[in-house]
Fold this sequence. Notes:
By secondary structure, this protein is α+β, with helices and mostly antiparallel strands. It has helices at about 40-55, 60-75, 80, 110-115, 125, 140-145, 155-170, 205-215, 245-260; strands spanning about 1-5, 10, 15-20, 25-30, 35, 90-95, 105, 155, 185-190, 195-200, 225, 230-235. Helices cover about 35% and strands about 20% of the residues. The chain starts with a strand and ends with a helix. It comes from Ruminococcus flavefaciens.
Amino acid sequence: MEHLLVSHWHKNTRYEIQSINGTEYIVPCEYGSVYDPIKSENEMMTDALNLGNYLTENDLGQNEMVLDFVHKYGLLGIMPDIAGSDIGKNERVIVRDNIFTDSGIIEVNEFSKTFFPLDNIDIMAKSNQKGKLRLYYRSPIYSTMFLRKYKYCEPLEWLKKYFKYLYSFIKGKEFKLTEFMPPRLTYKIDDRNGLNLLCEYDSLKAMIDLAFAKAVTDDKKPLRTCKHCGKLFYAADIRSEFCSARCRNQYNVYKSRAKH
Length: 260
């Protein structure tokens, strides 16, 4: 038996901000490709934290900064992340506790309207069809989310709220780390190629959340502040004090000049 990690995600080539029914959304504009963000989970996590820092401390350029993150990694996948039950298997969805909207039970097509504001989709009908995009063993809802035919969108303010929420656990310990909402992770036994245990990340957000949780509970304290630029970074080497060789070199140059 193998333990298989299902972490592939879809990233469009380009996104833009559109106002739809009075709400600003991040909307995909050009089709992209599937990739595996878990390979750079710590960089993605520190990028999210540094973005949260920027959004907390600055008013200018916020939208552009959020778009930069989305262009690099894709949307967060808030729709499957806040669902406490598989979307499309039943006519209603359990919305678990989250920072974006009220928890409770909601009709599945009503739930989907938040994330498909430009489309009129019958989620139950689509979930019973085989999608053309196979996202590595995932449930059919992911094919609906990322097919060319539809535009899966996320409210801009929800992304901003998440990044600031994540950073709040670093800044001044506004919240206790034990109050951090855990990501939704699922697993199942698959028998397509022998018996395998599949552990599935339901969203990009879940990958960031788990990377953050692992970093803050690591005895080596790999989550650090760069001695030169002040940005947060993940120290793979316990001796690291700088986020990059460039910052280390610049710090040493300035230090040398200060002596003369």
